[in-house]
Write a structure and sequence with these properties.
The protein is mainly β and about 170 residues long. The protein contains 2 helices and 9 strands, in the order αββαβββββββ. The protein has a 7-stranded antiparallel β-sheet with strand order 3-4-9-5-6-7-8, with no helix packed on it. About 10% of the residues are buried.
Amino acid sequence: MPRGGARLGAGRPKGQGKYREPTKPIRIPESLLGEVIELISTEGYSLPLYSCAVQAGFPSPADDHIEGKLDLNKYLIKHPTATFFVRAAGDSMVNAGIHSGDILVVDRSIEAKHGKIVIAAVDGQLTVKRLHKSKKDTYLMPENNDFEPIKFEEDNEVIIWGVVTNVLHQV
């Protein structure tokens, strides 16, 4: 029997792990272990975040001090297992900053309350609208006066898929 009492061939067969390929042990300084685990778990990029604010009015001198690293996964996604992305189509939400082609970050774990922007299936058709609840009625409200609100009727099948938390669009 090999050193330490381990049996040869014990453990998982080669290529059967999460990544379906052979693995290789490596040594990592303990001070970097957290960062390596975080990088592997998020599978994301950590990009520089500058400490200066960018003026939208009168320009100020450039500041090249880096505040830290910004991982967009952490910034945009609070509940990874309950989050999905969907692309917006149409113009009914332009006054809320949602344009056709934008990518919406949607969190299913957030309660759909009055005033929240939600993704809803109404009679099988997906839509993005602001949820409006009153004592009498519930509506899905557009953010464009060219569109009509959708009133929840008894014969409608309405399923709220989640709450929109962020909008990604190009400028």
